Amino acid sequence: MRLISLIAWKEIKTALREKLVLALGGIIVLLLGLSLFAGYLNYEQQQTIITQTQEVKRQEWLNQGDKHPHIAAHYGTFVFKPKTVLSLFDFGLDTYTGTSVYLEAHHQHEFMFRPAQDHSSMIRFGELSAALVLQILMPLLIIFLAFASFTRERESGTLKLLMSQGVSFQTLTWGKILAYGAILAVFLFPFLMGIMLISVGEFQQDAIPDVAIRLLLFALLYGVYLFLFIAFSVWVSLCSSTGRNALLTLLSSWIFLAILMPKTVVNLSENVYQLPSMREFKAAIEEDKANGLDGKSTRSIRMARLEKEYLEKYGMDSVQQLPFNFEGVSMQAGEEYNNKIYDYHLGKLRKIFQQQNRLGSMASLFNPFLSVQHLSMALSGTDPHTFIHFEDEVEDYRRELVRKMNNDMAENSHYGEFYGYKAGSELWAEVEDFSYQTPTALALLKHYWIEVISLAFWLGIILLLIFYTNRKLKPLYG
Amino acid sequence: MDRSTRTLIRYEWKTFYRNRFQLLMLAVIFLFGLYAIYYGKSEINEQRQTIQAVKALEHNEFSAYQASFTEEMKTLEQERAHDIASRPAYAWYRHGYHAILLPHDYASLAIGQRDLFRYYYRLTGMSLHYQLFENELANPVNLMAGNFDLSFVMVYLFPLLIIAFCYGLFSSDKENGTLPLLQIQPIGIRRIILTRLGFYFVLITGLALLISLIGLFSAGNPFKPENLLPAISWLFGVVVYNAFWFGLIFLIVSFRKSSSFNAITAVGCWLLILIVVPAILNVIVTTKYPMSSTSLASLTRRTGLENEDVEEESREVIMEFLAHKPELAGSDSLIKSNMLPKAYAAFTTLKDMNSQQEVDHYNAQVLNRNVWTYRFHWLNPAVNMQHILTQIAQTDLKTFLYFQDALADFHGKITDFYFTRLFWDKPILQEDYSNLPTFEMPKKEIQWAALWLGLGKIALGAGVVFFLGFININKGISR
Asked: Does B184 touch chain A if contact means CB atoms closer than 8 Å?
């Protein structure tokens, strides 16, 4: 152990002599700071606007005046996607998912306004976030640190000297890995403190219920990722004859894993599983609303069936005799049927999304970068599953709102007297304000077992590689 | 070309084709280029198919309307259909017309923002803003990853190829011990490096041009008048952009450090230019010009008259509207017949007029952001190049903002068509169907001046780095 720390200490000293490494490390620390600062500003700005507007919309709903409940259901309300505090760490999909949705009777609207639409095509180059720095830039720093770890000793002949002192390859390797790990930890420390402070300061009003657990998982995730990269770089250096070769191998792998492959996989998934267009999607829904899911029960047939059912149930001859307003009942029945149609079509659509994303998950088995990218988004609450969960909660809220309106209409108004009844603020207040909590991290991780396995798998592989290569190496040929 | 240059090139060619790894890299890039062309084509073809499908839906809708004029009315549903076809009180908010932004032939080469913005809309006479903000279906994961199109290959991958081929131009001779042999030759080191750099410039830029030509020819005939200038500027852009990267690598090489240093510095520059700087600019622009779509969201609310049973309110709304559109007044039965549809038509139009300012303000903010980022194109040839390629392919932000303006005009045409009939209490006749409003995207010329200025900026950048390298390399060379 003493030997390992001795080797590590020597390695740290050499690294600190490299101006390039220090410069790059400095840049990374700066960028991390900048990303946190800008992320925080953006979070504050958006969060303030969203909370304010949500409150305004709530007041509009409560103070909409006396009107017929069905008109109120059409007047509807809006929901805005809250920004989570951890999204300042990893923006994830936030720039590309819609941010607001209009809730009204009869129609499910999709989320509108993707923030990327407010940018020029430069937005497609990506945005600076801590995740970008850690996922893409950090590996480059690691490569710079470690590519020569063994080749330098080999080229300058110190490797043989070390061996003759009785140092084993295993000790040497682990000493070096420890050294680079320690350097990164020092670089990352201020950043860790920063993100802790921000999260602790903000989490009470946040949509994420388990910020602390997520932060721990973050630390674990990036710890594993950076360790993987360090170990891989040292291993490549161990296997390479010259520093130049090691560097080229590492740089090409990095470009392939972090730049080329993620894009290619996603693009392929789009070619394999094709989405319908919005117009066709909506047209299919309208078609089913008109002719029924079976294609035979048109709206009028469905209405007649419902009327008959209710008249038989209550033993009456006409709907006017029913003890409630049948219009409210039929309105709600129509709403529920529409919901069924929507769920069917949305289900099909979601399935395509899921298939596309599943391909990305499978690819992560070959590319730990993808695993980290997906898991990091999940922990930040900016992944596809959190968004789907949010969409579902919003739709449930809409259904509850419309149901309350229709039930009130059935109970309190009279058949055929649409203008005769007006509900007031008491009914509006019965609809609770919308509030959102993301699923817990552990619940989310169920969707990401492939990614977790991938990381564990790569961790195992790299440890085995280091172990076996070290055993096989002979100092004489080293 | 004198003899020594010829000799240099001959030997460079020999080292090049004996290096299997380099040949492999060229082949890989070539294949990536072909894949990118295929991918872009498949994306845009899908959009073309959607456009066809959408047109077919519209065609069916209007054929059904027209058919209802000749059919015999038997069922209640048939009568309803005929009402929708012939009575403006129903038709104005039910008849949907598609406004389509057809892709430019070269859109498949630089998809740009085309996957993010809508390229077709179905518009009825209802409030424009109620219909304007719905998004196209898209998987956000795919939007985030971006497109592997030819512009990506040109902007991201070719610089890497250039770095891979040229980072060791001087240092490898030093490291292999051939440098002293070169130094005793009568030609200077600078000239040797420049000749070799020139050799790779021709080779790699040649490959880039070849792939581009394949792309340009497979996406559309470049000799068509509307394609000729875009094709030429694409090719020119590729040459200039590659020149910049060659200039940069020349500058790095001119410091005459080790191969590892050169490789690290070059990749560092690549990272800076293609990832770090744009990422920082994006974050700055987001926080410097904060935008919130929440104000626009409110415009999409379906609102109506407060008390539609009170005649006075309807009358007031109609009158307010007619003050803006006096040409629609004058019908004897203005208030008597179809009062509620008229009131609603008036209401949504007035609402649009009131909220237009909000939309304009929002779009102006988006443009502001654009103007701000545009200033940094001097600094960043990659972003500049990407922008130029999307301008050429007409997939840039401005094209879509322009499309929105055209939508507003088209919506005006639609409402004019229905409202004249609605307010004058005239039915829609069968012959009116041969005279329906149609969408036209006004011919928008690419802003060539701006585009060439952009290219000029890249060329200037190339000149500066090359010049610095040229000066730098001879410093202390005699040592």
From this structure: no
